[in-house]
Amino acid sequence: MKKKRLIGGLAVAATLALAATGCAGGGAGGGDEGGLITVGFAQTGSESGWRAANTESMKAAFSEENGFELIFNAADNKIEAQIAAVRSFINQGVDAIVIAPIVEDGWDDVLTEAKEAGIPVILEDRTVSASEDLYAAWVGLDFRKEGVIAGEWAAENYGSTPTNMVVLEGTTGSAPANDRAEGFAEAIKGTQITVLDSQTGEFTRANGKTVMEGFLQKYGDTIDLVYAHNDDMALGAIDAIEAAGLKPGEDIKIISIDAVKDGMLALIDGKINFIVECNPLLGELAAQLVKDALAGSISERVVYVEDQSFTPEQAAEVIDERLY
Fold first, then answer.
1. CATH 3.30.420.40 given to domain 3-141+279-307
2. For the domain with range 143-277, which CATH number is right: 3.30.420.40, 3.40.50.2300, 3.40.50.300, 1.10.10.10?
3. What is the average per-residue pLDDT within 236-240?
4. pTM for this predicted structure
5. 277-298: per-residue pLDDT in tens?
6. b/e for 17-33, b at 16 or more Cβ within 10 A?
7. Maximum Cα–Cα distance across the chain
């Protein structure tokens, strides 16, 4: 499988501009009598600030102005509801389907149905374990690399002394949760960082707080470090740590992934110590892949957007320029 990496914000911006121009031009194949391309988008839900920014990016890219009619469905993180939404798109005879899969497994049957109906599928953000010939392309982030970057920073800064860590996992069975865990574990191998506990917080602030409260009740101030699979759970952990009379970022260090606005502000305030970015602005790239799929001209089936990482000082330098 070919892989294409887009490096940094300038490359992404250039690609977005190209995609926007292509959408406005039409003629990609498919579409209704008015020339609009009908796309069904099956989103995971609205569990986090990252997801909200991702949804807005997708809605903006798949706008009528850009030549699309978007049928949007958010599954509230229920895999059965998401699969049902995709089947509904197939029954409606849409031109293309975009899916941000909640979990990796369980997609074979409905993706086969889409293929038999002649409807190309683009995966956005997350991946699936189904055969690659059941979808046209994927665009998103390298979750495993995000975990490695976070783990390497932890190893460099905390790995030489005994460090007790707890982990706030993302949705069980999801690609980002699986890959971020594996990447981080690889990077801290051989260090003095010990995992005391690891539980899912479902990528939400509320559940991140609840799980962190449980960790604090069980382990108290023996916890030195929190690794959160996303910013919303890290923000929930901050609430729990402060409620326990401890200082996040000082008494308990925090490493997170996403770099959404609230997470970056907490980083600048010193309540989070390090954040790895996960860029949610994938809409225009997904829209271009839909047009390419309908035109039979996809040349790159896997499109990675490169992530950055931030210390508090680095976050302060860029916060005013960021779109999410």
1. no
2. 3.40.50.2300
3. 98
4. 0.84
5. 999 999 999 999 999 999 999 9
6. eebbebbeeeebbbbee
7. 66
